[in-house]
Amino acid sequence: MEVHQKSCPAPETIPTPTLPLQLVRDEECLGVDFSWKLELMLESYPFVINPGYDLLSVDITTATIRVRSKRCTGSRIAQSTGCPSCTGLGPSVAVVRGWAQESPGKKSLGRLSHKQLAKKITGLSKQLRDERSKTNNSHKYLIRAKRRIEAYQTLIDVISTNDVPGLPRLLSNAKKEGWGASKTTDKANLAIRGLYHPCNYTELDKDLAILAYEYGGVALLHALHKSPFAFPTRFTIADLRRSSSLSITVGQSR
């Protein structure tokens, strides 16, 4: 007799229910630590902006940063330091880390790292100092130009409203000696008062003085010497005069 044994059906597997995250209500969310493995951490982090979270602290020894979400619930997950909002900040931190690794280029100020921002500020400060220096120099040049214009206006007033003795020779001396407008004005005032006599006589001055002496004598030459023409004195032209005498040459053989 064959005995048939009926196989019993296997018991159904009951799935283990997923338990919800347990929040520890009696402890405050402390934020979450994320790795920041970039060279010179304090210089590479863009402190200007933190998208979606606040930077709580920086640990140089472990190269980590602790952040807290702006939507932090305030209660941390069991066996964790932060709440669900804070523990989910990994992608946001990765974005900021990517910004820190980019070259400055044309990045906005908010994306610059501390080192890049400091370098930019240094460059802008130098540029500002250069612009201020240019402005100050331009102001100084303007003041000097105004003073020179005033000095030349004074010189023109003096020589145009007074009879300056020997004015052509005075101006010739000014050019030769490199006098400025102020010194030339001083010399002109001295010449007007009879305290300066420009004696750089030209050949024409000497020839006219000799002619005046020959035709008008000492009196005429002295008068011209005291005039604004300031002719040379007879002592100046003494060695230049040629003694001459009149003689009849008609009928004499040459």
Description of the structure:
The protein has 254 residues and is mainly α. The chain contains seven helices and five strands, in the order E-E-H-E-E-E-H-H-H-H-H-H. It has three domains: 23-112, no CATH class; 135-199, no CATH class; 201-241. The protein has helices at 41-44, 84-87, 90-101, 114-161, 167-177, 181-192, 203-226, and strands spanning 23-28, 32-35, 53-59, 64-69, 75-77. The strands form two sheets. It has a three-stranded antiparallel sheet with strand order 2-4-3. A two-stranded antiparallel sheet has the order 1-5.
Number of domains: 3
Largest sheet: 3 strands, antiparallel
Instruction: Work out the helicity level.
Output: 40-55%
Main-sheet strand order equals 2-4-3
Give the structural class.
mainly alpha
Put simply, the count of helices is 7
- C-alpha geometry: rod-shaped
Instruction: Report the count of strand segments.
Output: 5
Low-confidence stretches: 1-24
Termini gap: 192 Å
**Mean pLDDT score:** 79
- Round the Cα radius of gyration to an integer and report it: 51 Å
Element order, helices and strands? EEHEEEHHHHHH
Strand content: 5-15%
Topology:
Blueprint: E1 23-28, E2 32-35, H1 41-44, E3 53-59, E4 64-69, E5 75-77, H2 84-87, H3 90-101, H4 114-161, H5 167-177, H6 181-192, H7 203-226
Antiparallel strand pairs: 1-5, 2-4, 3-4
Helix pairs in contact: 4-6, 5-6
